[in-house]
Amino acid sequence: MSHIVIIGAGQAGAALAAKLRTLGFAGHVTMIGEEAAPPYQRPPLSKKYLLGDMALERLYLRPPEFYAENGIELHLSETAVAIDRADRKVIAGGQALPYDQLALTTGAVPRRLPGAVGGELAGVHVVRTLADVDAMAPDFVAGARALIVGGGYIGLEAAAVAASKGMRVTLVEAADRILQRVAAPETSTWFRALHRAHGVDLREGTGLVRLTGGGHVTGAELTDGTRLDLDLAIVGIGVTPATELAESAGLAIENGIAVDTFGRTSDPAIWAAGDCASFPWRGVRTRLESVQNAIDQAEAVAANMLGADAPYDPKPWFWSDQYDVKLQIAGLNAGYERVIVREGDKAGSISHWYYRGESLLAVDAMNDPRAYMTAKRLIEAGRSPGAALVADPATGLKALMTA
Questions:
Q1: Calpha distance 268→256 (Å, rounded)
Q2: Order of strands across the sheet with 325-331?
Q3: If 0-12 CB within 10 Å is exposed, 13-18 middle and 19+ buried, where does residue 85 land?
């Protein structure tokens, strides 16, 4: 009987395994995960879970008994250390697991500060896993002094939770502005004002020289000459795709594990999906770091492992929760030339529409779900309302759908 092995027990791995069963695959399914917990949601970790508003069990993607009931063999607390492509075996947990097809859903790993600048001190945290958040939770107390390194979405979300807890928060971003890599200046300006209104000492164009302390972090030196007294530091400077296993097995790597439009790697018996995989899309090799892509790509790969031969064509969307603000993003803004600002129907709601020429590429909607849904439908349909219509508050969202 055919055996499919999945390395990685996160969002993508869980989605792939479940989809195999939904599509009627009757062979063996084995999923290998490094963590002790069954597959769980990551986005609430640094928000509701850290705030104490969500119990551990609510993080689980499926009840623990789901896997046994559906014939999915979970190997938790195990690390896959090698792939023997010639004999089609995975070495994990001290044993060799044979496979007929193999799926890599290894995700991504957070970038850490080097030890030379204090990155290995106790009290220096990253935000990725349940263990990461459990380790920092005791430090999240009112009055604690926190430094957030990095002004991307991870850093801003961490700053929002810390400020909401009554902590004294300093956030440094070495680039000229927060969100510089992923959003327009208009969106950066909006979120800068939001965080400063909540008491965050937000410093752009300011880097970290070093963290200091005798075993536990107690301070920081910044490039603007400031010295801070600290109780903890959170590093949110991005992630890198987890490709080490694939690379050691000789698979093609290009900003992640390189797959074709079907999700197949350079070895026809091995597939990849989620944060670890880069794929061709609209003429560019692309890697998407999002829950939506992890699920959709994994389900597409599951179907293709069973012979569907259907190219993966994502419809990107993302979100971020900060304080009482929900940011919803549709599309990809790469290559935009101008941004149209549209005021929402309710106080505090606004959206930023990205255009290249006359083509609508993406939207950032802050507390404006109607604008988000309208733009998402337009982008997915390949339609672009005139920028002047978008900017005109007298033009209703329904009218944009027919413009």
A1: 17
A2: 317-322, 325-331, 359-366, 350-356, 338-343
A3: middle
E-state strands within 76-155 = 80-84, 89-92, 95-98, 101-104, 108-110, 124-126, 145-149
**CATH code of the region 324-402:** 3.30.390.30
- Residue 299 to residue 11: CA distance in whole angstroms: 11
Each residue of 377-393: pLDDT tens digit? 999 999 999 999 999 98
Phi, psi angles (nearest 5°) of residue 47 = -125, -95
CATH number assigned to the domain covering 112-235: 3.50.50.60
Q: Which CATH architecture has domain 3-109+239-305?
A: 3-Layer(bba) Sandwich (3.50)
8 Å CB contact between 346 and 387:
no
SS3 label, residue 300: helix
Can you tell me the distance from the alpha carbon of 20 to that of 14, in angstroms, rounded to the nearest whole number? 10
C-alpha 220/C-alpha 226 separation (Å) is 8
Q: How do residues 113-170 score in pLDDT, each as one tens digit?
A: 999 999 999 999 999 999 999 999 999 999 999 999 999 999 999 999 999 999 999 9
pTM of the model: 0.94
> Which residues of the chain does CATH 3.50.50.60 include?
3-109+239-305, 112-235
Q: How far apart are CA 304 and CA 299, in angstroms?
A: 9
